[in-house]
UniProtKB/TrEMBL annotation:
Protein family (similarity comment): Belongs to the beta/gamma-crystallin family.
Pfam families in alphabetical order: Crystall
Annotated organism of origin: Mizuhopecten yessoensis (Japanese scallop)
Protein name from the UniProt record: Beta-crystallin B2
Residues covered by the Beta/gamma crystallin 'Greek key' domain: 50-87, 135-178
Keyword list, A-Z: Acetylation, Repeat
Protein's UniProt keywords contain Acetylation: yes
Length: 182
């Protein structure tokens, strides 16, 4: 029999690339990595279960970096000071609608899969509100899933996001979180 909570979120963080160096297994929120030896030291992660958000500041503040189940990756930054799992669904039919006006007004477009480059669309640097019908989505300031991230879970987001400092008229790429870790 598996122990209670064996299905809960779990991530292992490492101080060296490729899951090497000192490691720490986390099963829940870590509001501050200060005094743990891992503050601004995490460079790779192995996500066993769930969706996790890494924050550059303590108390879940500052820019975010989202990682999810199946990902065993090196990070592009070394700034993580807190982290936590978030409730999110891995939908097989993700759906997110963007609007270029506030409160779900103006032109809109529904996405059901990733888009690495919005530059050719009329939504490049013009998204102001977002509605997620299904799935969990990560949007990026820059094309090709680069730059600061904004996390959107199911629900309505008017000029903000569920995690990360959403910036109006900045999103240039977006993608749904999928179980394969792609
Ligand atoms: Ca930090
Ligand atoms: Ca942009």
């Amino acid at each position: 029999m598996s122990a209670p909570g064996a299905k809960g979120p779990r991530i292992t963080v490492y101080t060296q690339t490729n899951s090497k160096g000192a490691l720490k297994v986390c099963d829940g929120p870590e509001y501050s990595l200060a005094f743990t030896g891992f503050d601004d030291k995490i460079v790779s992660v192995d996500v066993k279960r769930g969706i996790w958000v890494l924050y550059e500041d303590v108390n879940f503040g500052g820019n975010i970096y989202v990682v999810w189940e199946g990902q065993k990756i090196n990070l592009p930054m070394k700034t993580t000071s807190s982290l936590k799992p978030i409730e999110g669904d891995f939908s097989d039919n993700p759906s997110l609608t963007v609007y270029n006006g506030p409160s779900f007004t103006g032109k809109n477009k529904t996405f059901n899969s990733s888009n690495s480059n919005l530059v050719a669309t009329e939504f490049q640097d013009s998204i102001t509100s977002v509605f997620v019908d299904s799935g969990t989505w990560v949007a990026y300031r820059d094309v090709d899933y680069q730059g600061p991230q904004y996390l959107f879970t199911r629900g309505a987001f008017n000029g903000t996001s569920s995690e990360g400092p959403f910036q109006n008229d900045k999103i240039s790429s977006l993608r749904p979180i999928t179980r394969c870790g792609c």
